[in-house]
Amino acid sequence: MRRNILLNPGPATTSDTVKFAQIVPDICPREKEFGSIMEFVSRELTELVGSNEKYTTILFGGSGTAAVEAILSSVVDNKIILIINNGAYGKRMCEIAEIYNLNYIEFKSSQIETINLKELEEVIKKNNEESKINNCGAISHLAVVHHETTTGILNDIELLGEICKKYSIEMIVDAMSSFAGIPIDMYKMNIKYLASSSNKCIQGMAGISFVVADKKALNNTQNIKPRNLYLNIYKQYSYFKDNYQMRFTPPVQILYALKQAIIEAKGETIEKRYKRYKECCEILWDGLDKLNLNRLIDKNISSMLLTSVIEPQIKNYKFDRLHDYLYSRGFTIYPGKISSENTFRIANIGDIYQDDMRRFVKILEEYFTGII
Ligand SMILES: *Cc1c(COP(=O)(O)O)cnc(C)c1O
């Protein structure tokens, strides 16, 4: 099969073994044989970030946003959720909160600098004092994106987890583009709910979104008046726990591919995968430096899984032309997403290796040498 290298921030490049794992005899997803596939997927996804004793993974058919929407619409009662917005995905969580009529506070933060934790803590303190005086809800949840794929900034969820501990707040993390790419320890980081999907750093096919939840926290959501049907995480969890089935039709073949992707991730280990991604990133950054192309995010706060490149002030430069040049040579890049600066994005997640990145950098050089 032709090998395309996807340098867009997901779906990511997959191995042939993951692609071919989808070719299986037809099977009804309510059969035990298929239940064991889903049980494996759920159990092993949990293992990547926590123990199955304390945590559980709830699967949904849908893209990643489904998992984020599932958490937000299922676990917040009538108290307040504080949402950190330092990119498009933080903003999306605010949109979800708005639609479900949640009691939320938006904490806007720079898209290119670290979150001001002092200021954040002030917001929590001030709100909790007011809630005592007015006898209304305190902040019960905090939601944050781990790796903001908008820019490539990596938010420090460990420090946020400590703040949450101090104020008895449950932390929700959108780890869509970091799960299985950057080591995460839900217990150590004090994460109660984590959202991710099958098509980013876990290197599977698009179609499954999942929530890893602290079982104790999840059990406490049983009596919240439901705002959702399909996306209710407690209902999905309790049905799965007893039957090893999803309540609604799962994307059958995507789950076979995900099983294979998990086997490959475990074989590689997340630590080594992170190292591989970072090595690809270094090659990219060296290439960008040579071409005098600047990066939007400082190295010390970058995920090194995605790079926002500031568009050069060259007369003949046009993103579409650059994209098409690279695309016809097997590489896909992605447009930028922030308003303050013109950028394009290059992700280095997926089944890609240093040689792929070296080839990419060479073609990028060729292109820019040609247009100057
Ligand atoms: C990819 C991504 C999502 C989900 O996007 P979908 O298009 O729904 O898969 C959510 N949050 C972050 C940080 C992401 O990178």
UniProtKB/TrEMBL annotation:
Aminotransferase class V domain segment(s): 31-343
What cofactor is this protein dependent on?
Answer: pyridoxal 5'-phosphate
Where N6-(pyridoxal phosphate)lysine occurs, residue numbers?
K200
**GO BP annotations, alphabetical order:** organic phosphonate catabolic process
Top-rank EC class of the record's enzyme: transferase
* Keyword Repeat belongs to the record: no
One Pfam family matching this protein: Aminotran_5
Top-level taxonomic group: Bacteria
Cite the InterPro entries for this sequence: Aminotrans_V_dom, NH2EtPonate_pyrv_transaminase, PyrdxlP-dep_Trfase, PyrdxlP-dep_Trfase_major, PyrdxlP-dep_Trfase_small, SP_NH2Trfase/AEP_transaminase
| Positions annotated to bind substrate | R345
Does the keyword section mention Coiled coil? no
The EC designation for this entry is 2.6.1.37
* Stated role: Involved in phosphonate degradation.
The protein's matches in NCBIfam families, at most eight in alphabetical order, are given as:
PhnW-AepZ, PRK13479.1
Q: What family is it from?
A: Belongs to the class-V pyridoxal-phosphate-dependent aminotransferase family. PhnW subfamily.
This protein is called 2-aminoethylphosphonate--pyruvate transaminase
- What is the native source organism of this protein? Clostridium beijerinckii (Clostridium MP)
